[in-house]
From TrEMBL:
Keywords: ATP-binding, Ligase, Nucleotide-binding, Purine biosynthesis. It catalyses: 5-amino-1-(5-phospho-D-ribosyl)imidazole-4-carboxylate + L-aspartate + ATP = (2S)-2-[5-amino-1-(5-phospho-beta-D-ribosyl)imidazole-4-carboxamido]succinate + ADP + phosphate + 2 H(+). This is Phosphoribosylaminoimidazole-succinocarboxamide synthase. SUPFAM superfamilies: SAICAR synthase-like. Its EC number is 6.3.2.6. One of its GO terms (biological process) is 'de novo' IMP biosynthetic process. The keyword Ligase applies. NCBIfam families: purC (TIGR00081). Belongs to the SAICAR synthetase family. Residues 6-232 form the SAICAR synthetase/ADE2 N-terminal domain.
Length: 239
């Protein structure tokens, strides 16, 4: 067997080349980090849950006509995805004020927003992922106007699909972060992951948090909350 080539290692995932140059293998790690890597821990079982939950959401989105990089799960902690060049932007969609939005605008956490709010952050650890606007994106030549329009449109569609689906499971979709890539044909495609690491999920009845805020804010029972999300989704364990 050929040695595995590690293409990239991030805080929560590793990316490996496969024999097919158009496919990469993503391995979800048990590592948890917050506050730009300042807070770190290993949470046994997180890799399995995020791999399964992310695969579930990508399949749901595909069924609803939203193209994305997901191909298939190949093990409890791994999935194949289409190789794309990630656009260094974090596209955040919010339905309810929380986290940095509450701080920035002085809104009480939990205040519903009159309409979804999209924010763009530059993916740059050294700069602390600053909030940026479309002029910044243009001068930095990070994405074209057409690509940005497409990413924002897709982000709002993802919000509609996930928000409605999750509401049936008694889960409030407070906010989430998406990343996009450009494939070999030059098309923009939804990529990265969609999991309790990248979304805020609150129980609709109790407001109980079932996401990475349990880790960020030392609320305890992090893995139990991720398991609760997986159970409510009612997904199948294909591998
Ligand atoms: O999480 P924090 O309060 O630092 O930031 P936020 O801007 O309120 O985060 C908005 C949403 O994007 C939350 O669901 C975060 O989990 C997610 N996010 C992420 O997945 N990765 C980041 N680097 C920043 C935010």
């Amino acid at each position: 067997m050929k040695p595995e080539t590690l293409l990239y290692e991030g805080k929560a995932k590793q990316l490996f080349l496969t024999e097919d140059p158009a496919i990469v293998r993503v391995r979800y790690k048990d590592a948890a980090t917050a506050f730009n890597g300042e807070k770190k821990a290993t949470l046994a079982g997180k890799g399995v849950l995020n791999n399964r939950i992310s695969a579930f959401f990508f399949q749901l989105l595909r069924e609803q006509g939203i193209a994305n990089h997901f191909i298939k799960e190949i093990s409890p902690i791994e999935q194949w995805v289409k190789k794309v060049a990630i656009i260094p932007l974090e596209v955040v969609v919010r339905n309810v004020a929380a986290g940095s939005l509450s701080k920035r605008l002085g809104l009480t956490e939990g205040s519903p927003l009159r309409h979804p709010v999209i924010e763009l952050y530059l993916k740059d650890d050294a700069l602390g992922d600053p909030l940026i606007n479309e002029d910044h994106i243009s001068v930095l030549e990070i994405a074209t106007v057409a690509q940005l329009t497409e990413m924002k449109g897709t982000a709002l569609k993802v919000n509609e699909v996930l928000r409605n689906f999750l509401a049936q499971k008694n889960i409030l979709l407070v906010d989430f972060k998406l990343e996009f890539g450009v494939d070999d044909s030059g098309d923009v495609m939804l990529a990265d992951e969609i999991s309790p690491d990248t979304c805020r999920f609150w129980d609709m009845a109790t407001g109980n948090r079932m996401d990475k805020d349990r880790f960020r804010r030392d609320l305890g029972n992090v893995i139990e909350a991720y398991e609760e999300i997986w159970n409510r989704l009612g997904g199948r364990e294909d591998v």
